[in-house]
Write a structure and sequence with these properties.
This protein is 50% helix and 0% strand. With 192 residues, the protein is mainly alpha-helical. Helix 1 packs parallel to helix 5 and helix 3 crosses helix 4. It starts with a helix and ends in a 21-residue tail after the last helix. The site of iron/sulfur cluster has 12 residues, from helix 4.
Length: 192
């Protein structure tokens, strides 16, 4: 699948576009996943994720996907599994020092990132791999975290609005002053 991996990097912009939309769908499905139980959907989603990303990116199912920060080049394919590379041993032509027939995944990553809208994220330092997440679905984890953050932001906005209204009630007059009635609207008893 090495050729497909290189294809994914060459089309990193397109994959970025697809993933952004896909993630929005996954976030929108949060109420459904919550109702079914994230534990129950974990396995089937992970099976699909493994098959699809395995084909496209040689994914190793690390459970904390960083493809959108690495130009769509999976860093787990680096023989040293460097999360912030390259290592410094890159050969002439951008080939890996451990596997000379393979292009360095980080050289590929920088190439892919240069094609992406959010390519600058490759400059951010990534945290070390959490091995306890291996085999789990990164799709579910990322979308669940995003949905939780969105819910928290919505709740905070509601709370601050409720607080603002309470303050407004404290300072509002007991009754609103009545506007003066136009003379044409005054009901005179002597008129039919
Ligand atoms: S970063 Fe992890 S989840 Fe993403 S493609 Fe690589 S191994 Fe798979």
């Amino acid at each position: 699948m090495y050729r497909i991996r290189l294809f994914a990097v060459r089309h990193a912009r397109g994959f970025e576009w697809i993933y952004t939309r896909f993630e929005a769908v996954m976030v929108a499905l949060d109420p459904v996943f919550s109702r079914l139980g994230y534990n129950r959907v974990e396995r089937p989603v992970a099976v699909v994720e493994r098959a699809l990303k395995g084909l496209l990116f040689d994914c190793r199912m690390c459970g904390q996907c960083v493809l959108s920060s690495t130009g769509m080049s999976c860093p787990m394919n680096c023989p040293k599994q460097l999360r912030n590379g390259p290592c410094g041993g890159v050969r002439d032509g951008g080939f890996c020092e451990v596997r000379p027939a393979m292009r360095c995944v980080w050289v590929e990553g920088w190439d892919g990132a240069s094609r992406m809208r959010g390519g600058d994220r490759i400059r951010e330092v990534l945290p070390p791999v959490d091995r306890s997440l291996e085999g789990s679905s990164a799709w579910l984890r990322a979308s669940r975290e995003k949905a939780t953050a969105l819910r928290a932001a919505r709740d905070a906005a509601r709370t601050s609005m409720a607080e603002a209204f309470a303050e407004a009630r404290d300072i509002e007059p007991a009754s609103a002053p009545l506007a003066e009635e136009p003379s044409s609207a005054v009901n005179r008893g002597d008129q039919p």
